[in-house]
Design a protein that fits this description.
It comes from Sphaerisporangium krabiense. It holds the Pfam family GerE. This is Putative ATPase/DNA-binding CsgD family transcriptional regulator. InterPro entries: AAA+_ATPase, HTH_77, P-loop_NTPase, Sig_transdc_resp-reg_C-effctor, TPR-like_helical_dom_sf, Tscrpt_reg_LuxR_C, WH-like_DNA-bd_sf. One of its GO terms (molecular function) is DNA binding. By secondary structure, the chain is mainly alpha-helical. It has seven domains: 152 residues, 3-Layer(aba) Sandwich (Rossmann fold); 84 residues; 80 residues, Arc Repressor Mutant, subunit A (Orthogonal Bundle), CATH 1.10.10; 122 residues, Serine Threonine Protein Phosphatase 5, Tetratricopeptide repeat (Alpha Horseshoe); 116 residues, Serine Threonine Protein Phosphatase 5, Tetratricopeptide repeat (Alpha Horseshoe); 120 residues, no CATH class; 63 residues, Winged helix-like DNA-binding domain superfamily/Winged helix DNA-binding domain (Arc Repressor Mutant, subunit A, Orthogonal Bundle). Helices cover 63% and strands 4% of the residues. The protein contains 45 helices and eight strands. The strands form two sheets. Strands 1-3-4-5-2-6 form a six-stranded parallel sheet, with helices on both faces. It is elongated and about 130 Å long.
Length: 906
């Protein structure tokens, strides 16, 4: 019966590795050698023991274990194999031919353990056996490959996290039963597993401290793992009694060039390249060719792990191996020089990549992202030096990565440090660092600080001659001016765009154009918004400016939706999501998904809206403090309202203000305040709703946002006790929406008027308006927004006396229905001439013209086209019977003196 011979006993339980065991067992084959490689302590020997136990029945002549750990004479390897197989060999200088002859007709598995220190002789024996013994299989373990023909190498990976946790906790229970239990223990154990790269030997050694320290204390002590992790089992080979001993064993096997390279690449974080390695030649010693050969040797000896799956091969050291290398670097007194060179390597990388920022940001992100751990380490080192200029310059150059990807907190920390290191300096570099900080804060930490930093950066850039930093800072400052008002922000954005176009600064020009488009969205001038945003998107996406590009697409979607083009809006919103997703950042992807969800709600597809938010909701649920995602809280509130949960909706709205030092509903976005007022009304808290509406009505920005102004009027109407007052307010809201082509808002207005007419007994008018709204929603693909319960609404519309009226309404297009609603209000009471004959829009134009503003200035102030201003002025001249601006000003002054509160004052 097949047997397993001389396999070392397992003195502790074997944990995990089920996948590896299955794969290794399948790979062991007659006539072949499989070599398990990896650093000391990764578990090669334990895996081989388990394979032996599982494979016994597969080999008729048995499984034999050959341990070479104590062998110091390579010439004795063949005799060691023969002894393990109980084969007598003749005396003489070369026993190998006799060994091969003895095995030629046998069918067995030979396991040769720990070959690295007698590698050449072990390889010679294995090659000879396999060449002449076709039914013999060899399983070898070694820190380096054997290098024989047909060898299959199996790098043993670190344990999976679940297996590593189980191993550590099992060993803790074995040595200190009272120490293994509870969430705090598991939390500390997980930190230990992460810090020790889940290497079995390191975990076993760490577990030996459980009777002295808690897992959390062990984890805190592992900044120097080679010092802490000693005291292994006395029965273990010396090299496995301490992690230091295991690393010494590997280090002693290196040649001179490999030892020099080994300690110097300790400065590299995971992900370094062969090009970076060859730059170490500047430190003296081995040249480029010898360094590359040394790198290959370190990979073969399992001290460096190679990843060759990408376009460029990248390398890393396991953490405990790197700690040993850094200790050797300190001993050689080369650490500062190596870190300085490391800084130069990655500063030059960013310099080489810089042109891609203007042509292909996707490629720039991919290449810099792969090198980011080393770039971050280089920045940290540079900022710690007596002269931090190189570190500060590198930090500023890295800003776009922090801005675009989910590393904003890291970037803000490093850039604040870079600003502090240059606090006494007023020069171009400090301006660049400040502008970089403003850029990162703009998405990482919303609030006033980003705009204050931008203004400081702009002033310093203008003073010291840093035009590129100045333009970037000015574009960010323009966003901050939204807090002052739309006209001010629009004026600044247009100035920034002009300056950037003149300088050939594509990103700033296009982002300013996109911001101008946003201003028109907020001002509900959708035709101009769509034109600006389409132009901006083209330039932004051509360069790979995915962040601002996805924002612009989202704003384009909103403009299209609110002007009635819901299908086009959905396409733009979906494109915004696909544009943002490669950034793998909650801010950009989340903001795009919020707009997609909002469009789906407008389309009456709440399930799809929730599905659009679901990936972000899942990520946020496990992210600790909630990140900043534009509009996320408001969209969650809208979903809650959709499902009849107004109290929850109100809570979501209030949560948007968590970024403020003293949260207040007045600091919420106007759109969110309006949703909050609706939620409070539906929850029955009319007093709180009225308070929000008063504050929103008094806010200067509301007067510049027709859609919000109309929404406030509708909400006030829904609070009004007097039906006629509610009717007047709804009509005024509809007029505002009609004047500004707010198509979806017009449909909302028809439904509000249908509901209030139903209340006041005007059933025919209510039915016509309800039918027209239903037709408009069907034509637009929009959701129903009735203001009475759906059941009541449907029931009333089916009553015989309303069916004909509803059918007549369904025959109307939207423009006809709006005209009908206006006529149904009653006879026109506005006189044919004089100041009172002017429409509200004409009064606004007349006031500004009387104050001396030009047509372009009036267009900017009122967010309308210049042609619209010209048309309004023609009407004003005719109604007031004046010929020009001078006469208009005189008439206005005289009218003001007579007591008209709306007339301009002299």
């Amino acid at each position: 019966m097949p047997a397993v011979h001389r396999v070392p006993p397992e003195l502790s339980s074997f944990v995990g590795r089920a996948t590896e065991l299955a794969a290794i067992g399948d790979a062991v084959a007659a006539g072949r050698v499989l070599t398990l490689t990896g650093p000391g302590g990764c578990g090669k020997t334990r895996l081989a023991i388990r394979v032996c136990q599982a494979a016994a029945q597969a080999w008729p002549d048995g499984v034999f274990w050959v341990g070479l750990e104590e062998e110091t004479d390579g010439g004795q390897v063949a005799r060691r194999v023969a002894a393990a197989l109980d084969l007598p060999l003749p005396s003489g200088p070369d026993p190998l031919p006799a060994l091969v002859a003895a095995l030629r007709d046998r069918e067995l598995l030979v396991v040769v353990d720990n070959c690295e220190h007698v590698l050449d002789d072990a390889a010679k024996v294995v090659a000879a056996v396999l060449s002449q013994c076709p039914r013999v299989a060899v399983l070898a373990t070694s820190r380096a490959r054997l290098g024989v023909a047909g060898e299959r190498v199996w790098p043993v990976p670190p344990m999976g996290l679940a297996d590593a946790l189980e191993l550590f906790l099992e060993r803790v229970r074995a040595g200190a039963p009272d120490a293994a239990g509870g969430s705090e223990v598991r939390s500390g154990a997980r930190r230990i597993c992460d810090r020790l790269d889940r290497l079995p030997l390191a975990l076993e050694l760490a577990a030996g401290w459980a009777g002295t320290l808690s897992p959390a204390q062990i984890a805190d002590s592992l900044s120097a793992p080679l010092d802490l992790l000693d005291g292994g089992a006395r029965t273990a080979p010396f090299r496995q009694r301490t992690l230091q001993g295991s690393m010494d064993w590997s280090h002693d096997l290196l040649d001179d060039d490999e030892r020099v390279l080994f300690r110097r690449i300790g400065v590299f974080e995971p992900g370094f390249t062969a090009d970076a390695v060859t730059r170490l030649a500047a430190l003296g010693g081995p040249g480029r060719e010898r360094l590359l050969r040394g790198l290959r040797g370190l990979i073969d000896k399992s001290l460096v792990v190679a990843d060759t799956t990408g376009e460029v091969a990248r390398y890393r050291m396991l953490g405990v191996v790197r700690a040993y290398a850094l200790a050797r670097l300190e001993e050689a007194r080369e650490a500062d020089a190596a870190r300085d060179l490391h800084l130069e390597v990655y500063a030059s990388l960013l310099e080489r990549l810089a042109p891609l920022l203007d042509t292909d940001k996707d490629a720039w992100r991919a290449r810099l992202g792969a090198a980011y751990p080393n770039v971050r380490a280089a920045i940290e080192w540079g900022l710690s030096r007596a002269d931090p200029a190189r570190g500060r310059r590198l930090a500023a150059a890295c800003a776009w990565l922090w801005h675009l990807e989910g590393r904003g907190a890291d970037g803000a920390r490093l850039l604040r440090k870079a600003v502090a290191r240059g606090a006494d300096e007023r020069g171009p570099l400090q301006a660049e660092v400040l502008a970089a900080l403003a850029l990162v804060l703009n998405t990482a930490e919303p609030g006033i600080e980003a705009f204050e930093v931008a203004r400081t950066a702009r002033a310093m850039a203008e003073e010291t001659g840093a035009p590129a930093a100045g333009r970037l800072a000015r574009s960010l400052d323009a966003i901050g001016r939204l807090a002052v008002g739309l006209p001010e922000a629009l004026e600044e954005a247009r100035a920034v765009r002009g300056e950037a176009v003149a300088a050939g600064d594509g990103f700033v020009a296009d982002s300013a154009e996109a911001f101008i488009g946003l201003m028109h969205v907020l001002a509900d001038d959708y035709r101009q918004a769509i034109g600006c945003l389409e132009h901006a998107v083209e330039g932004l996406l051509r360069r790979g400016d995915r962040g601002t590009g996805s924002f612009a697409l989202g704003w384009l979607a909103l403009a299209a939706a609110r002007s009635g083009a819901l299908r086009r809006a959905g396409e733009a919103a979906e494109r915004a999501v696909t544009t943002a997703e490669p950034l793998r950042d909650l801010h950009w992807t989340g903001s795009a998904r919020v707009i997609l969800a909002e469009i789906r709600l407008l389309q009456g597809r709440p399930e799809e809206a929730a599905a659009a938010l679901a990936p972000i909701d899942r990520l946020i649920a496990g992210s600790g403090p909630l990140p900043f995602i534009t509009g996320w809280e408001r969209c969650k509130a809208l979903l809650a309202l959709e499902h009849g949960r107004p109290e929850e909706a109100a809570d979501w709205c209030r949560h948007e203000g968590r970024w403020q030092e003293k949260p207040s509903t007045e600091w919420l976005a106007p759109e969110t305040q309006l949703v909050l007022a609706t939620a409070l009304r539906e929850a029955g808290d009319h007093t709180a709703a009225a308070r929000v509406l008063r504050a929103l009505s008094d806010a200067p920005v509301t007067g510049q946002m027709p859609r919000i102004r109309a929404g406030v009027l509708d909400e006030l109407a829904l609070h009004a006790a007097d039906i006629e007052q509610a009717l007047r307010l709804h009509h005024e809201a509809l007029r505002i929406r009609t004047d500004h082509d707010l198509v979806l808002g017009q449909v909302d207005g028809l439904e509000h008027l249908a509901a209030v007419n139903l209340r006041r007994g005007a059933a025919e008018t209510a039915g016509i308006l309800a039918g027209a709204a239903e037709r408009a929603r069907a034509d637009l693909g929009a959701a129903r927004r009735v203001t009475v319960t759906n059941a009541e609404w449907r029931a009333r519309l089916e009553e015989p006396d309303l069916r004909d009226a509803v059918a007549r309404g369904r025959a109307m297009d939207l423009a006809t229905a709006v005209g009908y609603a206006t006529r149904a209000r009653g006879p026109r009471r506005r006189p044919e001439s004089g100041w009172e004959s002017l429409t509200p829009a004409e009064r606004s134009v007349a006031r500004l013209a009387a104050e001396g503003l030009s047509n372009p200035e009036i267009a900017t102030r009122l967010f309308v086209g210049r042609g619209t201003v010209k048309t309004h002025l023609a009407h004003v001249y005719a109604k007031l019977q004046v010929a020009n601006r001078t006469e208009l000003a005189r008439a206005a002054i005289a009218l003001g003196a007579d007591g008209d509160p709306d007339a301009p004052r002299g």
